[in-house]
Amino acid sequence: MEAQRLVPFLLLICIGGTDCHLVTKLMIRMTGRSVRFEADNLHVAYYYVLYNVSAEGDLLVFNTSQPGGSHPKAGRVSFHGFPDNFFELTETTLSDSGEYRLEGRLCDSIAFQRNYTLIVCPDARINILQTPLNRSVQLCGADSKGESMTTIQLYRLGGDSPDMLILDTTTSMEQLPEDLRGRLQVDPNSSSVTLHGVTEDDYYQAYECVTFQSGQCQSSKLHLLDCERFTLYPRQNTRLTLPCNIKPTSPHQVYWTTPSGNVTLSPEDSSQAPPSDSQQEEKMYMLNGSQTGDYSLIIPSVKQHGKYICNHKKRLVEYEISMCWQFKSTTATFSNNETVKLDCGLNYEVQWFRQRGADTEELILDSENKTVLLPEDLSGRVDTSSLVSLVIANPRAEDSGVYTCRVKLPNSESFKPALCLEHQFRLHYEDPYGIHSLSSEEEQSADGAVPDDLEKDEHNSI
Ligand SMILES: *[C@@H]1O[C@H](CO)[C@@H](O)[C@H](O)[C@H]1NC(C)=O
Ligand SMILES: *[C@@H]1O[C@H](CO)[C@@H](O)[C@H](O)[C@H]1NC(C)=O
Ligand SMILES: *[C@@H]1O[C@H](CO)[C@@H](O)[C@H](O)[C@H]1NC(C)=O
Ligand SMILES: *[C@@H]1O[C@H](CO)[C@@H](O)[C@H](O)[C@H]1NC(C)=O
Ligand SMILES: *[C@@H]1O[C@H](CO)[C@@H](O)[C@H](O)[C@H]1NC(C)=O
Ligand SMILES: *[C@@H]1O[C@H](CO)[C@@H](O)[C@H](O)[C@H]1NC(C)=O
Ligand SMILES: *[C@@H]1O[C@H](CO)[C@@H](O)[C@H](O)[C@H]1NC(C)=O
Ligand SMILES: *[C@@H]1O[C@H](CO)[C@@H](O)[C@H](O)[C@H]1NC(C)=O
Ligand SMILES: *[C@@H]1O[C@H](CO)[C@@H](O)[C@H](O)[C@H]1NC(C)=O
Q1: Which of 23, 184, 437, 456 has the fewest CB atoms within 10 Å of its CB?
Q2: What is the whole-number distance in angstroms between the Cα of residue 329 and the centre of ligand 8?
């Protein structure tokens, strides 16, 4: 163990392979990885042999003069000849740890010799770490003993490229990939490596960190996960699009989990087109984002509350859908000089919406968001001190429209989204001289924008 600890530093003295006596090269690998025992090509050798040096003596692992030797490890060992000249041991296991000796031979004489110490580290379970963009994250060194002389190796795993050793404190960091330059901070004292400024690309990478200290090998695997959460309060039976954008160059296994089961891109679904026959019209489907990255879920008619999650190996987008139920619908008429009072009937977190004519619905008041400003045409005519009712002074014909109060009541079960209730008012102007007045029935059939699923309809004259 004493020798092993010194090795990484002695190694630097051995340059060119001309005289490397008493130098053992330390190699640290994770289980399952492959390792190379490199010969040199400065010395002429007829053949090469690799020995496993154990207390019981030398064990021949591979003799290039007799390929496919009898040793049980032979199937995992291969020799790559000139100009590379190395033995490769694949799928390393913990029991492969030990001393090895590589010899280049000329007939019965040894042309050169090189000793290796192989440490195979136990594999680590992958840890998932949720990290928002731009943050710093520690890739290595969660539980360091604070001793000096620590070897740190950092691998970048998978993604679109093969596993790659990106940092090794026994060598220089020259081969650090472009996107990591200036972002990795190494502290050998605490054997920690910190990645600064997490980018979107980092979510598509995993990291494996191997630390070797006092003969002890530790490893950890980490992949960063971006998890976004949203709570939405759609109106029941309305169309809803839940956005989910995954970087198009990353592996594309994306699917949705919903309260009514999984939604996947089934091969029979034509891409980006809703199912055609009328029976399927209500069925939700996801977009094929293999070109665009857009894997949004389209819900033609939202009926079920609960969690809708866009799943990708590296990214989760979670939508908590809490349906907004219309508990009351009221029709009211008004004429000039009458103050209009729309009584919501519930008071908690209150929002008021207005929809006039063909305009889209606008949020006009929000008890939780003071930056929502009353539209100019209403300012000075509406008292905003209490939102339990909407009181419009000096109403005008242009005030006609659909007014909705939406109330979010806390759910008795904690962590559940709020209960959302709506009271809708259809406000009609009635000309006091009866010239332009419309009956409410005519108004309904003329105005297609008014939802037709009214359960309780009251007609009030204010
Ligand atoms: C390799 O180790 C052996 C002992 O196992 C030693 O005799 C030999 O000198 C070492 N060779 C080198 C090049 O360090
Ligand atoms: C390697 O194999 C060749 C051919 O079978 C044999 O002559 C030689 O002695 C072997 N060398 C060692 C070191 O085992
Ligand atoms: C080396 O020898 C040791 C002890 O005999 C054994 O446990 C280990 O599996 C061997 N490794 C290889 C690669 O042959
Ligand atoms: C991340 O930082 C960059 C540069 O400092 C900045 O332009 C960007 O808006 C930040 N992004 C987020 C999500 O904070
Ligand atoms: C590492 O430890 C040594 C000795 O304790 C100290 O001198 C040095 O400043 C430390 N380096 C860092 C980066 O903390
Ligand atoms: C949904 O799909 C994922 C991935 O294909 C699968 O692991 C999971 O078991 C599925 N769940 C259900 C309820 O079918
Ligand atoms: C998604 O679109 C790609 C090309 O845009 C196509 O190759 C693939 O088959 C589509 N997948 C499904 C399930 O429709
Ligand atoms: C509104 O009230 C004013 C003064 O009280 C009156 O002059 C006007 O005629 C009224 N308008 C209507 C339409 O009743
Ligand atoms: C508050 O309202 C403003 C303006 O409508 C909007 O931009 C903002 O996102 C709202 N904030 C919250 C927390 O909903």
Answers
A1: 456
A2: 30
**Among 253, 254, 256, 257, which is best to mutate for testing ligand 6, by the most ligand atoms less than 8 A from CB?**
257
Domain boundaries, the chain: 2-121, 126-225, 238-321, 324-461
Ligand 2 centroid–CA 68 distance in Å is 13
The ligand placed nearest to the CA atom of residue 43 is 1
* pLDDT tens string 145-156: 555 567 888 888
Residue 76 Cα to ligand 2 middle (Å): 20
CA of 64 to the centre of ligand 2 (A): 8
- The highest-level CATH class for domain 238-321 is mainly beta
| Ligand 4 pocket: which of 134, 135, 228 to mutate (most atoms within 8 A of CB) | 134
Closest ligand to C-alpha of residue 87 is: 3
At 202-260, the pLDDT tens digits run 887 788 888 887 777 888 888 887 778 888 888 778 899 999 988 776 667 899 999 98
Ligand 8 atom 13: residue of nearest CA: 336
Considering the four listed CATH numbers 2.60.120.200, 3.40.50.1110, 3.30.70.1350, 2.60.40.10, the one that applies to the domain covering 2-121 is 2.60.40.10
Please state the CATH superfamily assignment of the domain spanning residues 126-225 in this structure.
Answer: Immunoglobulins (2.60.40.10)
How many other β-carbons are positioned within 10 Å of the β-carbon of residue 185? 13
